[in-house]
Design brief:
Layout (H helix, E strand, L loop, with lengths): L8 H9 L15 E2 L23 E4 L3 E5 L1 H8 L5 E8 L13 E5 L6 E6 L11 E7 L8 E6 L16 E3 L9 E7 L25 E7 L13 H4 L2 E7 L2 E5 L3 E3 L7 E6 L4 E7 L15 E6 L4
Parallel strand pairs: 10-17
Antiparallel strand pairs: 1-6, 2-4, 3-4, 4-7, 5-8, 6-7, 8-9, 10-11, 11-15, 12-13, 12-16, 14-15, 16-17
Helix pairs in contact: 1-2
């Protein structure tokens, strides 16, 4: 979604969103990122991963780029640290950014070596409802000789409502070579549909059009584009299938539009014109790629209902 000629921040966003975005302006606002190597978030007594009653977890850790994020991007994000690796990590709940620190994460390689996390940011997935994708930058190993194997939360990292503490959560890393999968689908409240809102270059995705009856947020492991780097369009829209429960009968339908485009993150809004309770979504194999150029497999996830 971002033209390859753009540098700095736009090169950074490439990790989540690929390589081309039409009519994007160079961005000047600061990037919300943290480089702290000490966890300074106090334990507020929120439920932790040791609590069997809570549902907080890591959903995905995706080895997105191996020594391939240019130094110009790093300079804009977390200082002059040279070329680095990139890894989007997705949480089950939105994150309180004030508790998000580089020191909260431990990356361990297949042989047990500890990687280096230089900084972390929620950008560009900053729209309301999206703040669950943390992008890690650093040196996490080598795809060929010492691949990253696990990501663990070792600091106090709280959910947006501060009711959950992700400390202790751990997940296996998806290697560099596989293409991106869907990680999460959830029904979206009407106030997040952003009807007829255009997308912008910084964390503001386009909205659904008039005629939307309901919307589903589809969250990918990392940014996706067409294989040529362009933003997705109707070709990719028609690869989404949504299964609805209509009076006890499963009905497959297509979104009539896609929203949350043109903002460089790893989310899509599936805009539906039909009633029914969403059960699952799927996407056909071979239509989109991650920043490493890997085509997606056929992928499907169940839809989480609106929170009560």
């Amino acid at each position: 979604m971002i033209y390859p000629r753009l540098v700095g921040l736009l090169t950074f966003i490439m990790l989540l969103a690929g390589c081309a975005m039409p009519n994007v302006q160079i961005l000047t606002q600061p990037i919300p990122a943290d480089t702290s190597q000490v966890d300074t978030t106090p334990d507020n007594g929120a439920s932790s991963m040791d609590d069997p009653e809570q549902r907080a977890s890591l959903l995905s850790a995706f080895f997105g780029l191996d020594d391939d994020l240019p130094g110009t991007a790093n300079l804009r994000i977390c200082g002059d640290v040279g070329k680095t690796d990139g890894m989007p990590v997705i949480f089950s709940h939105e994150i309180n950014s004030e508790t998000l620190q580089a020191a909260d994460f431990r990356v361990v390689t297949a042989s047990g070596q500890e990687g280096r996390v230089d900084c972390v940011t929620l950008a560009p997935a900053l729209d309301t409802g999206e703040r669950r994708t943390a992008l890690l930058l650093g040196d996490f190993g080598s795809a060929d000789t010492e691949p990253p194997a696990t990501v663990e939360i070792v600091g106090n990292l709280l959910s947006l409502d501060e009711q959950l503490n992700f400390k202790g959560a751990v997940i296996s890393v998806t290697p560099l070579a596989p293409g991106p999968d869907l990680v999460l689908a959830e029904s979206v409240p009407v106030e997040q549909w952003k009807l007829d809102q255009p997308g912008g270059p910084w964390s503001v995705g386009s909205g659904c059009p008039q005629g939307t009856v309901q919307a589903i947020r589809a969250v990918w492991q990392g940014g996706i584009t067409k294989p040529n780097g362009d933003e997705v369009d109707d070709v990719e829209r028609m690869q989404y299938t949504v299964t609805l429960d209509q009076n006890g009968n499963p009905v497959d339908t297509l979104p009539f539009a896609l929203g949350d485009l043109d903002d460089g993150d790893n989310n899509h809004l599936l805009c539906l014109s039909e009633e029914g309770t969403p059960q699952s979504i799927s996407f056909s194999a071979g239509y989109v790629v991650d920043p490493n150029g890997d085509l997606n497999p056929a992928t499907a996830v169940e839809v989480q209902p609106l929170s009560s």
